[in-house]
Design a protein that fits this description.
Blueprint (H helix, E strand, L loop, with lengths): L8 H4 L10 E6 L2 E6 L2 E5 L14 H23 L8 E8 L7 E9 L9 H8 L3 H7 L11
Antiparallel strand pairs: 1-2, 2-3, 4-5
């Protein structure tokens, strides 16, 4: 009789992800409405790019997504340690690539902690916010498939 290790391949398989959906609908010109679970927001383009500049661009929302995810994780860190979130701010800056394809070249995210956060906790908070879901996704990009419905 031979000893065999238990089959753990199923345990290594990722769990099926819950599906999420959002819908984007043309409004006018370069303006689109995004519906996310009944929450609605608009996107547009700046005037110099042919839009009316009534809303952020999709790329600005991309950078905002990262910044707000970092802010959320920072806020949760503060709450978990009994520290106030008042005064917490996150700033995001990005540059576009100068070559093709069109894309964001770099993003800088700066966390401005509340004044009550002791300096000895900065490194721990940085470690936490560096693992926010959006940041993790940028480091482990998802598969993306774009289709035209027929």
């Amino acid at each position: 009789m031979t000893d065999t290790a238990p089959d753990t391949s199923a345990a290594r398989q990722p769990r099926p992800a819950a599906g999420h959906r959002l819908d984007v609908t043309h409004v006018d010109g370069d303006v689109y409405e995004v519906d996310v679970r009944g929450h609605r927001l608009l996107v547009d383009q700046p005037v110099d790019a042919g839009g009316t500049d009534i809303a952020p661009t999709p790329v600005e929302l991309f950078a905002a997504s990262l910044a707000t995810c970092v802010a959320f994780y920072a806020g949760r860190y503060l709450r978990r340690h009994g520290l106030p979130r008042e005064g917490l701010r996150v700033r995001s800056e990005f540059t576009m690539a100068t070559d093709r394809p069109a894309r964001v070249d770099s993003v800088r995210v700066v966390v401005v902690p509340p004044p009550e956060l002791p300096a000895r906790r900065y490194a721990a908070m940085l470690a936490v916010v560096s693992h926010c879901t959006v940041h993790n996704t940028l480091h482990e990009p998802p598969g993306v498939r774009i289709e035209v419905e027929t």
